[in-house]
């Protein structure tokens, strides 16, 4: 009954009674996330989730299929030099123009992809009292569950719950991981680490560098796994699953289910990323744009809310700070010239992540803060 009464308290109030901070805190105190609101039978979107009208204008417009979203087949990437060269060219083109692409024949078994999605489902659909044990906003913890990392700093909350796990270099211990998805997190992460090294080699080559260049820069050292759960939304035209943002890392490897909703900003239009069974989505993050001195693009993307669902996705972030590191990143000297000097000041993953978290999603890119 506690969750139910709180859900009623934070229903969209009258203009005269609206106290955003109090309502945010009332919601936070449930530790049940948006799924708790759905379970309590909420039929109107609580005011804290309603986004400004100017941010919602284009969500009803279906994206026109003017573009073919980049799809790269990795089959033969390590066996055939000619095939590898073509794949490197495709990676370069997609990373420079889209900042996003999908990959197939990546070596991660489809059964493992399905089990990873199901693991996130199991975690979110277990008893609330069990989930509450993981609820925290302490960024030093290696396993946390919460709703919107920027809940108290963003202008409007997004309709999703998230479980966050540190995978490397200082991983959460097995006993720290939720029982219902422990085994699959461990096994899936091993596959993503292998795949990540493959992708970093291809991207190094696409920049004209030696295959191990980015790995030697420790771009692949840090990995965090983030499982998003988007319950059905009672008023999806008033909010987002995730509002527009770019990622604060080197690359993201995203596993999404078949419900869709992910959109990428391309040529000033929002373009749907089509769900493709067995595929993984790869995108360039802010730190990669920084070290490549704008040669590769970290592109805005978002997830629409929906009355269908739940939608489930798993994002693996390479380079997101997952423990204090003194490693400094700056535009690679190999990519600079007299005509193309550094565009960004040096920073660490820790500094970038702290600024990104404090700024929250939406609005301007965090990269602007580091631009020379």
TrEMBL record:
Keyword Oxidoreductase tagged: yes
Cross-referenced InterPro entries: DIOX_N, IPNS-like_FE2OG_OXY, IPNS-like_sf, Oxoglu/Fe-dep_dioxygenase_dom
Pfam family of the protein (one): 2OG-FeII_Oxy
All residue ranges annotated as the Fe2OG dioxygenase domain in the record: 219-320
Molecular function as annotated in GO: 2-oxoglutarate-dependent dioxygenase activity; L-ascorbic acid binding; metal ion binding
GO biological process: coumarin biosynthetic process; response to molecule of fungal origin
Organism domain of life: Eukaryota
Keyword terms, alphabetized: Iron, Metal-binding, Oxidoreductase, Vitamin C
Keyword Cell division: no
PANTHER family, per database record: 1-AMINOCYCLOPROPANE-1-CARBOXYLATE OXIDASE HOMOLOG 1 (PTHR10209:SF791), OXIDOREDUCTASE, 2OG-FE II OXYGENASE FAMILY PROTEIN (PTHR10209)
Family the UniProt entry places it in: Belongs to the iron/ascorbate-dependent oxidoreductase family.
Protein name: 1-aminocyclopropane-1-carboxylate oxidase homolog 1 isoform X1
Classification lineage: Eukaryota, Viridiplantae, Streptophyta, Embryophyta, Tracheophyta
């Amino acid at each position: 009954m506690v969750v139910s009464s709180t859900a009623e308290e934070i229903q969209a109030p009258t203009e005269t009674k609206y106290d955003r901070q109090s309502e945010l805190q009332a919601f936070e105190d449930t530790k049940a996330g948006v799924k708790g609101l759905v379970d309590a039978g909420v039929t109107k979107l609580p005011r804290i989730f309603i986004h400004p009208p100017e941010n919602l204008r284009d969500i009803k417009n279906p994206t026109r299929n003017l573009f073919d979203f980049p799809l790269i087949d990795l089959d033969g990437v390590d066996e055939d030099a000619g095939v590898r060269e073509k794949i490197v060219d495709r990676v370069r083109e997609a990373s420079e123009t889209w900042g996003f692409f999908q990959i197939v024949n990546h070596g991660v078994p489809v059964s493992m992809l399905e089990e990873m999605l199901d693991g996130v489902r199991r975690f979110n659909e277990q008893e609330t009292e069990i989930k509450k044990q993981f609820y925290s906003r302490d960024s030093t913890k290696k396993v946390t569950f919460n709703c919107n990392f920027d809940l108290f700093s963003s202008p409007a909350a997004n309709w999703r719950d998230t479980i966050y796990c540190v995978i490397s270099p200082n991983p959460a211990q097995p006993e720290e991981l939720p029982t219902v998805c422990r085994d699959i997190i461990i096994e899936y992460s091993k596959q993503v680490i292998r795949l990540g090294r493959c992708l970093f080699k291809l991207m190094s080559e696409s920049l004209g560098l030696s295959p191990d260049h980015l790995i030697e820069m420790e771009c692949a050292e840090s990995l965090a796994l983030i499982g998003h759960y988007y319950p059905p939304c009672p008023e999806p035209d008033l909010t987002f699953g995730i509002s527009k943002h770019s990622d604060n890392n080197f690359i993201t490897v995203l596993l999404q289910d078949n419900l869709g909703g992910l959109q990428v900003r391309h040529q000033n239009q929002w373009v749907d990323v089509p769900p493709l069974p067995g595929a993984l989505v790869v995108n360039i993050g802010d730190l990669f744009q920084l070290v490549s001195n704008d040669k590769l693009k970290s592109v805005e993307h978002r997830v629409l809310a929906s009355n269908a669902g739940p939608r489930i996705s798993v994002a693996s972030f390479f380079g997101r700070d997952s423990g204090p590191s003194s490693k400094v990143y700056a535009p690679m000297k190999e990519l600079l010239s007299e005509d193309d000097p550094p565009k960004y000041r040096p920073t660490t993953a820790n500094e970038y992540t702290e600024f990104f978290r404090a700024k929250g999603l939406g609005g301007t890119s965090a990269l602007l803060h580091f631009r020379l």
